[in-house]
Amino acid sequence: MTKLKKMLKENFNVVSMSNDVQLIKISEYPSQKIEKLKSIFWESSVKTDFESEKKKSEFEYKYFDFYVKYFPHLSFAIESDNHPIGYLLGADQTTPYLDQLEMQKYVAEFEDIFATYPAHFHINLSENARGKGCGQIALQELFKILTDQNCPGVHVITALEHPSQKFYEKNGLAPLKTMKISATQIVILVKSL
Ligand SMILES: CC(C)(COP(=O)(O)OP(=O)(O)OC[C@H]1O[C@@H](n2cnc3c(N)ncnc32)[C@H](O)[C@@H]1OP(=O)(O)O)[C@@H](O)C(=O)NCCC(=O)NCCS
Prior knowledge:
This protein has 7 helices and 8 strands; from the N terminus they run αββααββααβαβαββ. The chain is α+β, with helices and mostly antiparallel strands. Strand 1 (14-16) and strand 2 form a beta hairpin. The longest helix has 18 residues, at 53-70. The chain is globular and about 45 Å long.
């Protein structure tokens, strides 16, 4: 690590991984830039219809603010050339937070897997930032951070054959179990760290 990168990491909560891709802790992020991350969140969300504003806020909390609150050391804005292009929200534990995450019924089925692969994450990039290698750079950095803190493994749950499944597999996650929930087939992918 160069002296400049080391200084940035220690003093400004910035992880500089390449010349133009950086992870910046959201807990240190200016509020107008957080708004940009939230707009990327809603751009990428499959769920957009809510019966009330309260339900909408609860959804945003569950998939975004929750991570910044409980895992500030793993919740990052992804920047390229000093502009927010996405976010990566990590959690180094899952089981103790199941109630708060209000996960779905299927999570109980996967619970035994969380002992070996306790970490999970959510990643989203704005549309014009995709396909340029930024997601992979960011995710590999999260894996390094989790490895450094002796986390044994990571999992991610998605709809089977969702386009992101290929991305996860390129990043070393392998499908372990599938399950049908209503009409949707879901898959849990895992990786030892
Ligand atoms: C999924 C996502 C985070 C990937 O980040 P990215 O920067 O676009 O991906 P990268 O450019 O780093 O790709 C890394 C590898 O994964 C592959 N990959 C990435 N997205 C892919 C996709 N949708 N379909 C197939 N392969 C994909 C790339 O081809 C690349 O492989 P290669 O090294 O052989 O070329 C990003 O595309 C995104 O935010 N998508 C929309 C939201 C989403 O699906 N989020 C995750 C689930 S909620």
